[in-house]
Each structure stands twice: as C-alpha cells, then as structure tokens.
Amino acid sequence: MSETHFLSDRPTPSKTLVGVLCSTDQGQPLQLLFSADRLLDLGAVERILGGRISRSAGSPVTLNIGGQAASCASIANAPTLLDQALADQPMWHIETELGWVAMAQREIASHWPRTAVHVLTRPLASLTPELLENTAHITRQIENLTGRRVRKRLDETLEMPPLPHTATEIIRLKLDPDAGTNELAAAVETDASLAAQVVSWANSPYYAAPGQVASVADAVIRVLGYDMVINLALGLSLGKSVTPPKGRRGEPSFWTQSVYCAASMQALAQAIPPNHRPNVGLAYLSGLLFNFGQLVLTHVFPDQARDIERYQQVNPHVPSRYIDRHLLSLEREQLSAELLESWRLPEAVCDALRYQHQPTVNTENSRYSKLLFVATRLLAAHGRVSARPGDISDALLDELGLTRSVLDSTLTQVLGGAANLDSMARDLDA
C-alpha cells in the first residue's frame, strides 16, 4: 500500500528533496539528490567522480499521487548519487505541480536506473556566522586568501583600485558638519560623469521635480536635498570604482538591484514615525551599497568568485552567504563592510551591510541593518534583487515602527516607479 500523501504543513527541511541534474566531463547525465537543510559540497562530489561536473537541464518526472499524475521538476530519470543524510530518511517531502507530497524513499527511487550513496553535503547549521563578527578572524581569513599580511590600509592589501578623488572629497564633506551646498556641488562637479548622473537622477520623473534641473546645486536645493545628494554621489562614486560583475541570466543587473534597494530603503525610512526614524540619507546609501560585497569579491578573489558561482548553480536553495562561508570562511558582506570602514564611511552604513542578513543582531546602528533585511526580502519576492525571499516577522516590524500595510504601500510606490528606476539603472549600466 502506498504511503504517499499531500502535506498539510510546511515540508521538513531534513526530509525535503533537492535534486540537481548535472553532466559529467564525459557528457553523461548524473542526478544529485540531497536535503534542503544541507549544502552540496561540489568539491566532494568531484573527488568521488574523479572529474568536473556542470549543471544541465532535463525533463521532469511524472509521479502517481493517489491516482493523480503530477509533474516533479526536482527529479530526473538518470543515474543518481544520493547523499547519506537523505538516504537515512525513509520518507521524503517533494514539491510537485499539485503541491507538496510525502513519499516513501523506496517508491520514488524506482524512477531512476541506479543509485550510489555517498557523503555529498555538509549541514547548513554548521556554517554559522558567529565567528564572522570577530575582526581578528576576518583579518586572518583575508591574509589566508591573499597570502599577504593586512596592512594599515585594507584596500592596499586587497589590491582594490585607489578610492576616486571625488569619493575621498565627499567622505571628507560627510565628516565636516560645516560643509554646505556649494562645497558639495564643487566636489561632485570635479567628476563630469558623476555630476551628469546626479542631475539626471534629479530630473527623473521618479522624483517629480518641478521644471528642469540644470546643475548639481540645483539638484541639492530644489529636488533631492543635501543629505540625499551627498549619499547618492558617494554611493555612485564607490560603485563606479570597480566594474560590476555580469549577473546570472535572468537576474537583475548590479545597478538595477542597487537602485531598487536604495529607493526601497528611502521609502521605508520615510514611512517610520519621526521619533523612531533613522537618517533617510544613510538608509538610502546603505541600500545603494547593499551588494558592494559582490563588487569586492569578483575584483579581489576572481577564482573564488567563479567557484562560488559553480556552487550556487548546484545549490539553488541556498543563499550565497552560506557558500561564502564554506569556501572563504567569511561573507562578502563582512569583506565589504571592513573595506568601507577602512575608507571611513559612516559606521551606520558599514553595520547595515555587515549585519543585513542577521536581523537578531542588536548594535547601535541595527535599525539600518534590520531595515535593509526587510527591504531586500520585499524586493526578492518580486525578483528585483537576487536575494532569496524570506519571512519578515511581526516582531521585527514592530521594532522598526512599520506595519504590513506600510510594507504593501511602500512596495506599491517603488514598483509603481519601475520604469523610471529601470531607466536610471540602465544609465549606470551603460
């Protein structure tokens, strides 16, 4: 008698099937099966096989569920390597076109020709972030990865391009409480491309400026304000210091993600009651730089970045930070935060990037990191950033002074300006 049945509750990660179809270097199909609470160790798989594998596409298998035919894209009719941890589970939870089902391992195994069981994975729970908050650990890992001692200036150790003069001057102005519009306009206008971008943004229909904005000073005074322009100019200058990586096919570009995240952070911050509201300009800058770690990673560690991309292809269920921890023993967000800190960017922005995936971490600046957590999860659910969608707890919203209705209205506002935001991103991608 079949034990197969539809699930009424959420699937259990340790029983949830993740299937990846690959090709060996001889061109033979190979299916890898493991559970959703684990990371597929590509290095371990390739050591077992004695050669490289690459992700490939195949046809889904049709399952019989209580007399109903249901297509299942998670499995294929191909020789299979099965992870030991999943092999120890007699019942598996499987996603089909009709919904989630529980099916006995012995029933589903009849859909492929042969199976070998090996240790292919490591638990995601073993890739914990605690050590990543230790600066000495981060320094040690950077030294291990670069083969060089961390110097006084981290950008020199990482062999990053020199900080643009304009960015250096804008950082100086941010630290000067007496700096004004004329000094900011003069600093931005030393970079003609940056000045043109600031003026272009001020003229965007997204900001609904009355009349034509003709200069950086005009953008400051009439449309964006000093705080917005100084953070916008700084974010654009830093982002342009390194060529953005090409994203995976179907994913939004680096600048598309940055522009949407910045707009969302600005809108969310403005929606928070004034007595709890974080600095809107710093929230905007945190959003604009939220994936700066991707720039740093691909520039400083190109070989490791390629390995991370290969791991991501066979671990579609896993956020990139777990793969970073597995291969680098640190996260790209930690790396970028350390670098921006060495450049004397505001501590609030550095902490926002550093803890953006850890909403339970409480620091003096945790409003920014928690707001960034909310913004990226909102946008991920609509494909505007490459982060994985995730739950946003009511407790977190209460702590920030936000509500579900505010999230909905913010998302409507941001997505309503999609044509203008996309245009702004295309200008930066050009």
TrEMBL record:
Residues 160-359 form the HDOD domain. Gene3D superfamilies: Hypothetical protein af1432. It comes from the Bacteria. It comes from Litorivicinus lipolyticus. This is HDOD domain-containing protein.
